[in-house]
Write a structure and sequence with these properties.
Two copies of one chain form a homodimer. Chain A is α/β, with parallel strands linked by helices. Chain A has helices at 20-28, 53-58, 77-88, 105-114, 152-165, 177-183, 197-204, 228-238, 265-276, 297-311, 324-332, and strands at 6-11, 33-38, 63-66, 92-95, 118-120, 139-145, 169-173, 212-216, 242-247, 253-254, 257-261, 284-290, 315-316.
Chain lengths: 335, 335
């Protein structure tokens, strides 16, 4: 569990995309962000108050969140200086970068000397067990997709917001780095040893109250030639009662695999339901979540209405229309 | 690549099951085993000449193969003594145990000082890439199963033997510890980081001659709630042209999961073909490999003949009938 609230570290982020993790946290958990630390060269911001580590500590920040994930990967010397200052000021540090915080000697030694905690959220926790496939109490919904990056995290968080606003018991369960930093806990299932994927999902969404919903963030797609194993293990371990199928209609081929066209939505629904029923015979796709951001208002509404009719279930865009129709269906327990 | 021939290390194995790895190697690669080292208390043997490490070294052994995998897991002090003697005598050491050889200080230091290689076959090699899903030259066959431990390794090795005897180009590709020790190379796909399962399979069975068959050892089952993710990633990465479905008719429920009945063979064939076609549109289950060891001769023959008729493909038991009908079908390229 990562201690909150956060100080978001944007460094010299050139654009929004470079620090999308920080943006995600600021968007979904604004009240858990004390402010942000950016260098003068930064070309973007998250809309929270700018401050240094000592000011953040004074305002109650508990953890500096490294909100960037540059493709190069390494920590720049200047970043390391900032992280050391944060540790000195009393903050823990959390990061979703490929390079581990404790692989940087100065950071590891300072954290140890001061008793601070370093969170590398890409690193699964120790002690994950093999999945059992045994049914456990509580309700679960998993977001799945026709492809990677089809809005599964966004949809899960939008559902959590709408469901808790209605007084339903619902908890977002994070399976990727950004999700984990938003939730403050979770397991990066794609970084787990292959034999333990479904076990990780079982641990992530454990037994709960009979009327409590775990909203499990999906990963990849059963139709993605690189990552389908992760998606299937997650599907079996999450044991979802309900699924929401996420889709980006602007995509023609699978992400990073131009040889592979996107699967038909109908086929993707059928295969997900078939496989999910191995561990939950009631598993049903309850609705569609569609990213219509590249369409105009009229086109978008027409597409959503056509998809809803074609598949006999609500079709929403969490940004454009909100997810209320999905939550209506979840509350009813059927399409 | 593990250097051969081997000296099989049986220690004080109480029965055949305790050292089934050594048995597998002695059965499938008799000419690559110089002999075996057992303590006086051992209650079983592999049928190769008994000898100590120095005798083995004189007869050309290159690697001591730890042929046991006790559930406790640790190396007994007496075993460590034997391994050190083997290193002194000039042998490398290969092991499929959970405990890593280089986690034992004495073994690691001695190997380093003498320039010997320690092979922990459960440990995947570094540098595995994410799967691409791109088609590569060469032919591939994957053994799949209705469950774990349904004869996938045995069937793959029996196919290799029959195909090479017929002059076909065929190579067994190992994905589990025993298979890797038999082959002398391979990747334990269940120990790979989840994101890289299909990439590991692509690396294991790389581009090859257009008439060369890679016979890839399957793992788990698409219907096993604990391990299906591994099976799906392997299926996508292996890109099999043909599949052989392995089945143990004595099993009623999935291994280690009494809540889950075995899937109907027909359903298991259909799901494997459907999923395999994501990366190889021609993928077809060409035959059945059935473990009839618990049946009498008449019952067994009747079962095989019934299954062949029901599914319209050859059904064999590699031990009882041999795999010739499967190889006939493979050579024809259809059922």
């Amino acid at each position: 569990m990562i201690k909150k609230p956060y100080l978001l570290f944007l460094a010299d982020a050139p654009d929004r995309n470079a620090c999308k993790t920080a943006f995600g946290v600021a968007f979904w958990r604004p009240h858990e962000c004390v402010g942000e630390l950016r260098y003068p060269e930064a070309k973007t911001d998250c809309g929270t108050p700018a401050m240094d580590v000592r000011e953040a500590a004074r305002r109650g920040a508990k953890t500096l969140l490294v909100g960037l994930a540059p493709s190069g990967g390494a920590f720049a010397p200047r970043w390391i200086e900032t992280l050391l200052l944060a540790l000195d000021a009393g903050l823990d540090v959390a990061s979703g970068m490929h390079v581990r915080l404790d692989s940087v000697d100065a950071i590891r030694d300072r954290a140890k000397a001061l008793g601070r905690v370093l969170h590398d959220v890409r690193l699964p926790p120790p002690g994950i067990l093999v999945g059992t496939g045994r049914k456990r109490p509580g309700l679960r919904l998993l977001t799945v997709g026709t492809d990677c990056n089809a809005g599964k995290m966004f949809t899960s968080l939008a559902l959590e917001k709408e469901m808790t606003a209605r007084g339903m018991k619902a908890t977002f369960r994070a399976t990727g780095q950004t999700g984990i930093l938003i939730a403050g806990s979770g397991i990066a299932v794609d970084a787990v040893i292959a034999d333990f994927i479904s076990g990780a999902a079982e641990q992530l969404a454990p037994a709960n109250d009979p009327d409590h919903w775990d909203l499990v963030e999906g990963q990849g797609s059963l139709f993605h030639p690189s990552y389908a194993g992760v998606s299937l293990g997650l599907l079996h371990g999450a044991q979802p009662d309900l699924l929401v199928m996420c889709h980006d209609p602007s995509r023609k081929t699978m992400r990073g695999n131009v040889d592979h066209p996107l699967p038909p939505i109908r086929e993707c629904i059928a295969l997900n339901e078939q496989c999910a029923r191995l561990t939950n015979p009631k598993a049903t796709v309850i609705g569609l979540s569609v990213n219509t951001s590249r369409l105009g208002e009229v086109e978008a509404k027409a597409l959503l209405s056509r998809l809803a009719q074609e598949h006999g279930m609500p079709a929403v865009d969490p940004v454009r229309t909100g997810v209320a129709p999905l939550v209506d269906a979840i509350a009813r327990g059927r399409r």
